[in-house]
Design goal:
By secondary structure, this protein is of the alpha+beta class. It has helices at 3-14, 16-24, 33-40, 44-56, 76-86, 93-96, 101-108, 119-130, 146-155, 185-197, 214-224; strands at 31-32, 60-65, 68-73, 110-112, 115-117, 134-136, 141-144, 170-174, 181-184, 201-203, 210-212. InterPro entries: ArsR-like_HTH, HTH_ArsR_DNA-bd_dom, HTH_Metal-responsive_Reg, WH-like_DNA-bd_sf, WH_DNA-bd_sf.
Length: 234
């Protein structure tokens, strides 16, 4: 990528209103211009101007449904950029110890585009590594092992084209609040879909935060060895 492209993208992301819009969409959702204007605290006209620039810059896509237009990130690669930028520099002690419940909820569990992030995701990833279900493979990747494949099938997860040993099926995503890698890529997305389908977790309708249900804590303890008492807040 040329210097011009890097500077152009950086300029688009750096503007405060546009950064809020992008972060609001970082869970993979699609939202109207009005909803994004409200999230960013600006007028509809101002939001429209910023949305046009993000579309022209290739960071957003838009789809029309009837009279309404809905915006979403142009792809997972945009979410990866946002998470990577957030991970640059130290997480301040104030952020880690903040009494703000919304911030605590995001640190504990949140959507990172199509996969799980936060403290609970780190615990799940470490469990899979410890149990030999995935192994580190090459630079910033995880590979599914034969025991891991069998285990996922026993859980009822359709592994589909997730071939054993292929590193591109699991990606190491640097968690910006924990400074550790969590599982992303197709394998991370399959797990997130399963957690939601089983009722183990619920996505917040208003933020990127994810709530673990009572059924989820039971399943996480049984299948991942992740205990509620040692893994953060409710």
């Amino acid at each position: 990528m040329g210097q011009h492209n890097i500077s152009s993208v950086a300029h688009l992301i750096a503007e405060p209103v546009r950064s809020v819009i992008l972060i609001t969409l970082a869970d993979g959702s699609a939202m109207s211009a009005g909803a994004l204007a409200e999230a960013a605290g600006v007028t509809a006209q101002t939001a429209s101007s910023h949305l046009s620039k993000l579309l022209d810059g290739g960071l957003l896509s838009v789809e029309s449904k009837g009279r309404h237009r809905y915006y979403r990130l142009a792809g997972a690669h945009v979410s990866h950029v946002l998470e990577s930028l957030a991970s640059v520099g130290p997480v301040t002690p104030a952020w880690r110890t903040t009494p703000n419940r919304s911030a605590q909820a995001l640190r504990f569990a949140r959507c990172c585009y199509d996969h799980l992030a936060g403290q609970i995701s780190i615990a799940v990833t470490q469990s899979m590594l410890t149990r030999g279900f995935v192994v580190e493979a090459g630079e910033r990747h995880y590979a599914l092992t034969p025991p891991g494949c069998a285990w996922l099938q026993q859980l009822g997860i359709d592994i589909g084209d997730l071939a054993v040993g292929q590193a591109e099926q699991g990606r190491q995503c640097l968690d910006w609040t924990e400074r550790q890698y969590h599982l992303a890529g197709p394998l991370g997305a399959r797990l997130m879909d399963a957690f939601l389908a089983w009722g183990w977790m619920r996505r917040s309708p208003a933020t990127r935060s994810v709530t673990v249900t009572a059924l989820g804590w039971e399943g996480l303890r049984k299948h991942f060895g992740v205990e509620r008492e040692t893994c953060g807040p409710d």
